[in-house]
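#onboarding

Welcome to the new folks! Below is a worked example of what a typical request in this channel looks like: someone posts a single protein sequence, and someone else replies with the predicted structure as tokens. Don't worry about understanding the tokens yet, we'll cover that in week two.

Example request:
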Amino acid sequence: MQEDLARVRAAAAREIEAAATEEALEAIRVRYLGRKGELSVVLRGLGALAAGERPAMCALANAVKDEITAALAAREARLAATALARAADERIDVTAPGRRRPRGHVHPLRAAEDEIVAIFLSLGFDVADGPEVEDDFHNFEALNIPASHPARDMHDTLYVEPGTDVLLRTHTSPVQIRVMREHPPPLRVVIPGTVYRRDDPDATHSPVFQQIEGLMVGPTVSFAELKGVLVLFLRRLFGAETRVRFRPSFFPFTEPSAEVDMACVRCGAGGGAAGCRVCKGSGWLEVLGCGMVHPHVFRAVGYDPERVQGFAFGLGIDRLVMQRRGIDDLRLFYENDVRFLEQC
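Example response:
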């Protein structure tokens, strides 16, 4: 019987120490001290002992019972104290000063977009927006890019469903078409937004990137006005001394067309500086494309090209920010690494 009492004492002590709730402690009390508990089972064997052994075994049994009872009470007190401390930690003190949540900041691409839009707003442009899921007419046909036009190969289009004309817009130019179809001239708008092309991500390409385009239409809009607007824009963005040049180019939706370059933001040398990793030693950075709106585009939206003319331009916000900040990998903008974003 002495071995049985020792076994009950040890087992009860282990279970009490491991109990995590008051309910678990009550279950242990019933299992060991209840009328049908393990200690009661052991005590029923007292009658089989010799008369001289019973007093000692009774004293030992009472001591085990007292130890189990004391251990239960101590463990219950500790659990109650822990619960009280947790409640104090979790309690809302309505009289305490509020704790401000940490504030983030605008994504560097959105910050650049806001800055660019603000410049054009100051020049009298409005802001337009349109759907990112487009159809073939607005994305290609109305922009003088028919199905057989080789320029389509440059866009690497993502179609929503194969065999349909529903696609993710490859540029923000479709919004120009929508604006002109809805509003008569004169008009001047800028169109920022996200565009999509089927490009494999690398240091200079992404299947998702940001563009902003501009459109100005009126009876006497000229290429000289186009140059004036873009030179002013670049000098407000990069500094009053920024040098700008225009090079002849080709776009299916403008004629004549031009590429616009600016003096390198890193070396600032017209002839380039050896070893400059930004301009590759040329001294110039290509920043946007532009031109006079093609007559076919005006006809597609119901404008009379004999009565109106206009200019359009477009640039990639991602690469513009890369040039301004000296960033050499486009993917950093979309990986959402907080360490990078906090530096921009």
